[in-house]
Amino acid sequence: MSLSLVKGQKISLNKEGGEALTTVIMGLGWDAKKKKGFLGFGSRDQEIDLDASCVLFDTGGNMTDVVWFRQLRSQDGSITHTGDNRTGAGDGDDEQIIVDLSRVPSSVTSLVFVVNSFTGQNFSEIEAAFCRIVDQKTGREVARYNLSSTGSHNAQVMAKLYRNAGEWKMHAIGEASSGRTFQDLLPAMRAAL
Question: Which residues constitute the domain of residue 136?
């Protein structure tokens, strides 16, 4: 059964039996709210392009690599983005980032996942937004974090996977921010390290 995370919560990425997860999927899903027409008539769909990115940091807080829609694979091959969804159409994950934790270089201590609206809409125009961690081997959802919140922000620092005493853990951050790409969110990500 999946754990529903709250802002600030931390969990271990070990299975119930103590075995560590080796490959996880960070899924991002969202839907655009319908635009209301004049006097409430003629509502129409809108397209919102949310982008998921994974930024790799070392112990000094230096960015060592990034995986996003313009670079779908980390330089070492341990992290892969499945591609850019520009509308949020469909059910389930709209974008996925697959992380082989066993292959992440030992110099990388934190993986920070962010989401931003490339088209600039804010989160008050988005509904049913979530991020989740899935055990790739079993397909079992490990944890889910609700990203839907009204507000004028158009980006969020979603979560961080980090090494602690030889194991990977997850921290649900959920910090509202602003920016069209991961570069705009670097100060907020560094604050979350």
Answer: 3-34+45-192
